[in-house]
Design a protein that fits this description.
- With 281 residues, the chain is mainly beta.
- It has two domains: 2-250, Acetoacetate decarboxylase-like (Beta Barrel), CATH 2.40.400; 254-281.
- The chain is 12% helix and 40% strand.
- The protein contains three helices and 17 strands.
- The protein has helices at residues 7-11, 100-112, 258-274; strands at residues 2-5, 19-21, 23-24, 27-37, 46-57, 64-65, 83-93, 122-130, 133-143, 146-154, 163-169, 177-178, 197-198, 200-210, 217-220, 235-241, 246-249.
- The strands form two sheets. Strands 1, 2, 3, 4, 5, 6, 7, 11, 12, 13, 14, 16 and 17 form a 13-stranded mixed sheet that branches.
- The chain is globular.
């Protein structure tokens, strides 16, 4: 789901970042994801919901673009210097695969610093069916006894004005993705881990249609981890659905291999024994 948010209200919560939101039609662009992952390398199938915005560096002029029917909000992501800034994530087990959410949480936090709350939530994702054909999605997430998000929509490929968009990105820029707020947001009481930069590869077919208030609903709950988006005057604009979504997150900044870590350890030990360790007395 693509939507617009008040940039000042949103970025007041990230004022210490080295980035600034990209504006489209004077608003920040926020995407809310509802994920039913069927196959992953971090525990198999699990459910997830996250939201992110698109930013550029504060050291560069702020990007402010017109909102046009042709380009839509996706023009923010298409800018050469755009970076996707991940804000909050909740994970939950998929039916029949207990424990996968915690594996995804642990791996995501430790390797990429993702702001995945360390406590899994209770997530539910169901398709509305017409025979064997999915026609809609109903999703809700509860976390620590409180509602985080409720979402329901007709699938875009069944809606009037839908467009089909094949998407293939062999590899984004090395800093195309920002894994979490600064320091994981821990200095503000957030539940992130650390901030990393990394590249992604994506291949999928997207079906996109305008948000329709007559058939589509979104409610942000009071759960502390997911609640910030509810403070930003977020308004859904478009919905996107991908039945074949595939994504790969590449090694993040700060990555060090086992062999490199061992070599650094051995060098440290040798300097310690020889009394040549920099800064040692």
């Amino acid at each position: 789901m693509w939507g617009m948010a008040d940039p000042e209200k949103m970025w007041s919560e990230f004022a210490d970042e080295e980035f600034q939101p990209i504006l489209v039609g004077g608003k920040a662009v926020v995407t809310v994801w509802i994920n039913d992952f069927s196959d992953t390398d971090c525990g198999g199938a699990y459910l997830e919901t996250w939201y992110n915005t698109f930013v550029s560096k504060k050291s560069e002029p702020q990007i402010s673009l017109p909102l046009t029917p042709e380009a839509g909000l996706a023009i923010a992501a298409a800018q050469p210097t755009a970076q996707s800034f991940l804000q909050r994530v909740l994970c939950g087990d998929a039916p029949g695969n207990p424990g996968a959410a915690l594996k995804a949480i642990t791996g995501g936090r430790e390797i990429f610093g993702f702001p995945k709350h360390p406590v899994p939530g209770k997530l539910s994702h169901t398709f509305r069916m017409n025979g064997d054909t999915p026609t809609g999605i109903d999703f809700h997430a509860d976390h620590e006894g409180q509602r985080a998000i409720t979402f329901s929509c007709l699938l875009p490929d069944t809606a009037n004005g839908a467009v089909e968009v094949p998407l293939e990105v062999p590899m984004s820029a090395p800093d195309g993705q920002i894994g979490a707020p600064k320091h994981g947001g821990t200095h503000r009481g957030d539940n992130g881990a650390h901030q990393s930069l990394y590249a992604t590869s994506v291949k999928c077919t997207q079906f996109i249609a305008p948000w329709d208030a007559a058939t589509d609903t979104l409610e942000i709950g009071v759960n502390e981890h997911f609640a910030p988006i509810g403070r930003w005057d977020f308004v859904p604009v478009a919905k996107a659905y991908s039945p074949d979504f595939k994504i790969c997150a590449h090694k993040p900044s700060g990555w060090i291999s086992g062999s490199d870590a061992l070599a650094a350890h051995d060098e440290y030990e040798q300097q310690l024994v020889a009394g040549t360790l920099p800064g040692a007395l």
